[in-house]
Design a protein that fits this description.
Number of helices: 1
Oligomer: single chain
Strand content: over 45%
Number of strands: 5
Distance between the termini: 23 Å
Shape: globular
Largest sheet: 5 strands, antiparallel
Length: 84
């Protein structure tokens, strides 16, 4: 399901685990991990979508995925998972 930013179910005070994967042809995947508050997750998503074209997917209230393709080659995905 594609969600608009205002429709994303994120608990502002809950902690979220971020897994960011950047893939470029011919290179090893670049992986970044972090833990963020729900408010920081919401702000990061809004900022990222403001500067480019991304696709938001939320099939479960505890996980949000944002994907981008840059110049048709580099792909980047950020998965935000609520920490229980």
């Amino acid at each position: 399901m594609r969600a608009l930013t205002q429709d994303i179910a994120i608990e502002d005070i809950a902690p979220y685990y971020l897994l960011e994967v950047t893939r470029q042809p011919g290179q090893k995947d670049e992986i970044t991990e972090d833990v963020m508050s729900g408010a920081a997750v919401r702000e990061a998503i809004v900022l990222e979508l403001a500067v480019g074209t991304g696709e938001i997917e939320q099939n479960d209230p505890s996980e949000v995925v944002v994907r981008w393709t840059h110049r048709g080659q580099t792909t980047r995905s950020c998965t935000y998972s609520k920490v229980c």
